[in-house]
Design brief:
The chain has 214 residues and is of the alpha+beta class. It is 47% helix and 23% strand. The longest helix has 33 residues.
Length: 214
């Protein structure tokens, strides 16, 4: 069975199980450790102060007053992260960018324009740059997955460490009137795990196909 057919089978199985999604475990791969500077509590305090200012400020323009009370995308994310007791570390240079540890996985969460959030499941798989055959397979697997998946896979190259790393990302809009925000964000983060798992399965299928051709 070719890789294309294997991928279609995996995609079909995933869609059948999507409604029953519970809490998938992280992939059994090594996460590349990385750090981000910043003071989580300080950033959260500033977010709360900004929210308090919006609520306390009075305006003669009623629509503007109502808009000032709306939650931003980052505030909605912080509520979710607190609910799941996630470790959060904000960037010192960008208060809309934070590093999150969720179910053992490293995630970036980047808010834009108060309404858009991008979630990156960062570097869930890494290989040395001198493994040319494996890098070729990785690029093929990324292309296969990106053809059909709701999440986007991409790779980055660390010249200093001489490693290529694969990540998954998803950008979405978080309107302030959204209900069940926690459930929605949970599905986004666990969906990144599932996209990574589909990538690993596809990569393994490519390896198996190469063995048969030898």
């Amino acid at each position: 069975m070719g890789v294309f057919h294997v991928w279609k089978k995996l995609l079909k199985e995933n869609r059948q199980n999507a409604q029953d999604r519970l809490s998938p475990q992280p992939l059994p791969v090594t996460h590349t450790p990385f750090m981000m500077d910043g003071d989580t509590q300080g950033l959260e305090k500033r977010h709360k102060e900004q929210e308090s200012t919006r609520q306390d400020g009075k305006s003669q323009d009623k629509p503007q007053e109502e808009a000032s009370k709306e939650r931003t995308a980052m505030e909605m994310c912080l509520e979710f992260l607190h609910e799941y007791n996630c470790d959060v570390k904000f960037s010192e240079s960008n208060e809309n960018l934070c590093l999150v540890v969720f179910q053992g996985g490293n995630f970036y969460m980047n808010a834009w324009n108060d309404r858009v959030i991008q979630v990156d499941y960062s570097e869930f798989l890494s290989v040395p740059l001198d493994q040319y055959d494996e890098i070729s397979r990785i690029r093929k697997a990324i292309n296969y997955v990106n053809m059909y998946d709701f999440f986007t896979l991409y790779y980055t190259i660390d010249e200093e460490r001489q490693y290529l790393s694969v990540s998954a990302k998803k950008a979405t809009v978080l309107p302030p009137e959204m209900k069940d925000t926690s459930k929605y964000l949970f599905s986004i983060l666990t969906g990144c795990f599932e996209a990574a798992r589909r990538f690993v399965d596809t990569l393994d299928a490519i390896r198996q196909e190469e063995k048969k051709e030898k």
